[in-house]
Amino acid sequence: YAWDANEEYLFKAMVAFAMRRYSSKSTTQISNVLLCNVTDRVSFWFVVTDSSKNVTTVPGSEVEAAIRMNRNRINSAFLLSDKTLQFLKITSTLSPPVEPSTPVWLIVFGVVLCLIVAGILLLVVAGIRQGKTKNKQSTERENLEEKGEVAVTVENGIPCEALDLKAGHINGVFAADDERFTSL
């Protein structure tokens, strides 16, 4: 925007406001703020005078402290920021740290809770799959037995040879039935 006499007046008023707020005295007027060497690029230097004392200018440290204290109000008046409105010899103010809308502990809690729920769902799905495969294996075994095919049976996790149910099986221990009693 164009820097004109109205903008200069607003700047002088803001500096006078800052000086009044800083020193808690109402002695600083707009006429006490003097702009010097104003250029087309809107760069200039200014001096604040004090008519109540014999000193003609206010010390620079007081002016810096006043501007530092009210910098956000000055920036807001010109709709600028610390990057666009620069005061030489006055360091820019740090913006306050950004507070997240949700607390950090709530985010961590949500992540942990999601992991727990995912683990539980994984265990449930794995159990259902395992149950389906066991049911499928047992029905296949029953179908083979009904057809009369020889199937390998598993007892206590050890595969046993299957019996031929049609031919039968002779146990060798009880093969000799003629000797009922053993001799001494």
TrEMBL record:
InterPro entries: Collectrin (IPR042944), Collectrin_dom (IPR031588). Its main location: membrane. It is a single-pass type I membrane protein. One of its GO terms (biological process) is positive regulation of amino acid transport. It comes from the Eukaryota. It is found in: Cell membrane. Residues 1-184 form the Collectrin-like domain. GO terms for cellular component: extracellular exosome; plasma membrane. The chain crosses the membrane at residues 104-128. Keywords: Cell membrane, Glycoprotein, Membrane, Phosphoprotein, Signal, Transmembrane, Transmembrane helix. It holds the Pfam family Collectrin. This is TMM27 protein.
